[in-house]
Specification:
By secondary structure, the chain is an all-alpha fold. Among the domains are: about 60 residues, no CATH class; about 70 residues, Orthogonal Bundle (Helix Hairpins); about 40 residues. It is about 65% helix and about 0% strand. It contains twelve helices and no strands. The longest helix is centred in the last third of the chain and has 25 residues. The protein is extended.
Length: about 250
């Protein structure tokens, strides 16, 4: 009895993608371009993040497979247009990792050895004018803010103590209150408060995006419980006062 092949290697995935994109393969796959796959690539990336946050490792295994598919798909599209090969991708990332960690990959007597700074090395390689460049504008605002702050911190532009960050949060909240009273510059001051709270989350080693999502999910869970309770009693939520709703909220906390 012949055992069925497992198809459990990177080479198998490459072979399958090539077959799907062959003239006798899948019509949908053959129509795709680098650009047309962007929405699906973003979706799969977010699904990977969601699996990690939910600590569902069986789901993570599946979602990483979907993400690998999109990576190989992008490479195969590039190969078809003679732009680059998979080997070029690996050579690029492997060389980059070694170059940015010379103190790990070379002996001390090697002239290439030195204690490196990832962000400074990146800035020189890509000929950027600022160490803050390179963070995608399309990132969610909280994560983009955190990455910008991390980059600045890597060259020493950062508070030393948590108390200093907390004091800055209080200061920015005070300025927001003043702007509300003056009815001027409210959006700017609110942005400063959010930016400083993200800085606080960084010093506490908390992912601000996940923390906000957790709080949003908690709010939704409690709100839905109140909705169900009122629906079962045939009470219209809009007919209740804020004080009555607050009592229900505290009850469902």
């Amino acid at each position: 009895m012949k055992l069925e092949k497992k198809n459990n290697t990177l080479e198998d995935l490459i072979r399958i993608v090539k077959k799907l994109r062959s003239p006798y393969g899948c019509e949908w796959d053959n129509k795709q371009t680098h650009e047309s796959l962007i929405p699906y690539l973003l979706e799969e990336s977010h699904e990977v993040v969601e699996a990690i946050q939910s600590k569902d490792y069986n789901l993570l295994k599946e979602e990483l497979g979907d993400l690998f598919l999109h990576l190989i798909f992008q490479v195969d599209l590039a190969e078809a247009e003679n732009r680059f090969l998979l080997e070029d991708v690996f050579e690029g990332i492997n060389s980059k990792l070694i170059k940015r960690h010379p103190h790990i990959f070379y002996d001390k007597d090697d002239p290439r050895w030195k204690e490196g700074n990832w962000e400074e090395s990146k800035q020189k390689e890509k000929k950027r004018d600022s160490i803050l460049e390179g963070v995608p504008i399309s990132l969610p605002a909280l994560l983009r803010s955190r990455r910008i702050q991390e980059k600045a911190a890597m060259v020493g532009f950062d508070w030393d103590k948590l108390d200093q960050v907390l004091a800055k949060v209080d200061e920015e909240v005070g300025e927001l209150k003043e702007s509300i009273v003056d009815k001027k510059g409210i959006a700017d001051e609110l942005g400063d408060v959010l930016f400083t709270v993200v800085n606080l989350s960084r010093h506490l080693d908390i992912n601000p995006e996940q923390a906000l999502n957790d709080s949003t999910n908690k709010f939704m869970k409690r709100f839905k419980k109140i909705e169900k309770e009122l629906k079962d009693k045939k009470i219209d939520m809009k007919s209740l006062s804020l004080e009555e709703l607050d009592v229900l909220w505290e009850k469902n906390k």
